[in-house]
Amino acid sequence: MIWRRDHVAGGVMAALALAVLAMSGDLPFGTLASPGAGMLPILTTGLILLFGVVLMLQAAHSPPLAEITWSDLPHATRVAAITAACIFAYERLGFLITTATLLLVLILIVERRPMGAALAISIGVPAAAYLLLAKLMRSALPIGIFGL
Amino acid sequence: METFDSLALGFSVAFRPDVLFYAFLGCLVGTLVGMLPGIGPLAGISILLPATFGLDATKAVVLLAGIYYGSQYGGSTTSILLRIPGEASSVMTCIDGHAMAQRGRAGAALAIAAVASFIAGTLSVIALTFVAPPLARLALRFGPPEYTALLVMGLVFLAYMSTTSLVRTLLMAAIGLLLGCIGIDTMSGHFRYAFDLKELGDGIGIVPVAVGLFGLGEILSTVVKGAPSNVASPRLSELMPTRQEWKAAALPILRGSGLGFLVGIVPGSAHVISSFLSYGLERKLSRNPDEFGKGAVAGVAGPEAANNAASTGAFVPMLALGLPTGPVTAVLMAALLIHGVPAGPTLVTDHPTVFWGFIASMYVGNVMLLVLNLPFVGLFVAVLRIPYVYLYPLIVMFCILGVYEVSHSVVDVWIMLIMGVVGYLLRKFDFDPAPLVLGLVIAPTLELSLRQSLVMSGGDWMIFFRRPIAASLILISIGLLLFSAAGLIVKRRAGGPSVGR
After folding, report:
1. pLDDT(B107) > 90
2. Scanning every residue of chain B, which has its alpha carbon at the shortest distance from the alpha carbon of A41?
3. What pLDDT, on the 0 to 100 scale, is given for residue A25?
4. A89-93, B117-121, B276-280: range with lowest mean pLDDT
5. Contact between chains at A91 and B443 (C-beta distance less than 8 A)
6. Which of B482, B478, B477, B472 is closest to B146 using CA atoms?
7. How confident is the model at residue B500 (pLDDT cuts 50, 70, 90)?
8. Could you read off the pLDDT of B209-224 as tens digits, one per residue?
């Protein structure tokens, strides 16, 4: 059997729906005359399960799974991982340090651009954003342990 | 007469220097967003949405709507000069617009696209001025069953008009509805799927989801390329089309305006579909259909008029009924709601300065866009030369900054990252994430009106069929689903692909 795109897509959706249904046990469905907090979530999850199964049944008409190109995955993973690190550090190190490091790492290490351009952007843009937002618009940006 | 008085009130708001500034800013950012491949109007609006929190509702909606209709203007520039659609609705302009550029008529193609956009934008705002208020008055008679039926019809229409398959669209919308159920149930106080995170008590915000799916998700999916090297920059003197070109553009502009406005009212990817329909119509009506693909003026004028008119038409159900026709109007509705102004029938009566100020600003915005897009085309072309490798890290920074500024909660930023990864995977598996945002936005209203309908009828679901307006809307939805299913069966029997349109 050839695994196709919609076998996986439909399967994941159906599994997601089953997981949500399992988590919905404590939500009251109520009655038609007095609908409970669980009515719409459970009905919607039922629809997700149904559409997931339909997608799997129609999967023969979708392209083989192997045809999906993942050549951009390493780049996407690097960007997502660096973004995650930035979010983790955002409130701990503050806006200026975190965003300057984010820009420097993305431009200099991930994209391998010249040091001069990377430094100019990674220092200039966060500094300008900080002046505009924190000083002019009095917006509360995270300060972090270094007070920046 | 009442409409003209209200419009005068609107212009008194729209001509205020601060409102003019935000209209100009929206048009400028929209033009840039439309031009730059990889950033669509939805991503632009989502990323800038948090920046509007310090503004009042009028300025916020004027700025964000300016980005939306401005992007329709800007999208044509890259289509004509580079054969790369800056955004989805400009795909058809690539064909004949770029062919005109290759024949040395790039300036004329840009001018025709800009003038067609201006005429269509202005005509459709006039139509919006006269259609939306009476429709809003009618909608004031709607009760919970009518609203439930209307929202269901909106979702079904979206699925029917979708460029991916019916099942995929409905699946995405259902996931959006489910995400919209997270948080405290307003009727019973139950905590739903909050995983002991108090930040999820108010539910998942539209901003982290929209910025994640369309801002970060788009970046993760976009293959990094260098700046295009061969970008032509037409001079101002080359922008004037010939008399023959104007003549060939006149009727397609008018037809595109009418068609685009009507398609725009219908929920779905209106501005994309309208340009395809207009291109097909012009080709069918042309005396020289063979010219299409080789630089036909009508192939630029019609679709450009249609996508602009559709973007304005989409505001009719949003403003009058509170029904988002697509993800962009859904985000705009969320922006209004954040400012304490619910879009819908009460908008005209309860917030006339917002409603009429917004409409009047669109007249002004269309003039601004015409002025921006023609003389400054060289300046915009210069932006196209900035390598994407320098642009996307800045967009990531603004995504994080923007989402954090909404609630000052890092949980929202994590949600944004998760939605970014989800958006990347959805694109890989050929899902359109737009219906998910729509489902998320309408979930609270749909749930409330559905439960109110059932409570007021004592649990009798036939209430949706006993009230004429609700029954008509439900029957239209059922008809569309049956029609779509029949089309699928016919296609399957004919041996065609069943998935995707």
Report:
1. no
2. B178
3. 83
4. B276-280
5. no
6. B472
7. very low
8. 888 988 888 889 876 6
B442-471: average pLDDT: 91
Kindly report the CA angle at B67 between B63 and B72, in degrees rounded to 5?
A: 150
Binary contact (B170, A47; C-beta < 8 A): yes
Q: In the beta sheet, which residues pair with residue A35?
A: A30
Tokens 């003039």 found at: B367
* Residue B460, CA distances (Å) to B448, B451, B457 in order: 16, 11, 5
d(Cα B32, Cα B46) in Å, to the nearest integer?
A: 15
DSSP tag of A71: T
Give the whole-angstrom CA distance, residue A86 versus residue A104. Answer: 12
The residue written with tokens 């993305």 in the block is: A106
* Distance from C-alpha of B451 to C-alpha of B285, rounded to nearest angstrom: 50
pLDDT class of B499 with cuts at 50, 70, 90:
very low
Nearest to B335 by CA among B359, B310, B318: B318
Under 8 Å between Cβ of B375 and B96: no
Which is nearest to B58 in space by CA: B29, B22, B91? B22
Averaged pLDDT, B348-356:
88
DSSP B212: I
Q: How many CB atoms lie within 10 A of CB B377?
A: 25
* Structure token digits, residue B437: 């945002």
Q: pTM of the entire structure?
A: 0.80
Give the DSSP per-residue string, chain A: ---BHHHHHHHHHHHHHHHHHHHTTTS--B-SSSB-TTHHHHHHHHHHHHHHHHHHHTGGGSPBGGGS--TTHHHHHHHHHHHHHHHHHHHHH-HHHHHHHHHHIIIIIIS---HHHHHHHHHHHHHHHHIIIIIIS------TTTT-
- Mean per-residue pLDDT for B118-147? 88
Q: What is the mean pLDDT of chain B?
A: 84
Q: Which residues of B touch A95 (CB under 8 A)?
A: 401
Task: Tell me the backbone φ, ψ of residue B141, rounded to 5 degrees.
Answer: -85, -5
Burial class (CB in 10 A: 0-12, 13-18, 19+), B420: buried
**pLDDT grade for B501, boundaries at 50, 70 and 90:** very low
Assess contact for B82 and B267: CB atoms under 8 A.
no
Q: Among B142, B146, B139, B78, which residue's Cα sits nearest to residue B106?
A: B78
The mean per-residue pLDDT over the stretch A55-66 comes to 91
**B171 and A51 in contact by Cβ < 8 A?**
yes
pLDDT at B235 over 70: no
Residue with tokens 């069929």: B465
Q: What is the ipTM of this complex?
A: 0.95
Q: How far apart are the CA of B12 and the nearest CA of chain A, in angstroms?
A: 27
Q: How crowded is residue B288: how many other Cβ atoms within 10 Å of its Cβ?
A: 11
CB atoms within 10 A of CB B281: 18
B167 closest CB neighbour out of A55, A113, A137: A55
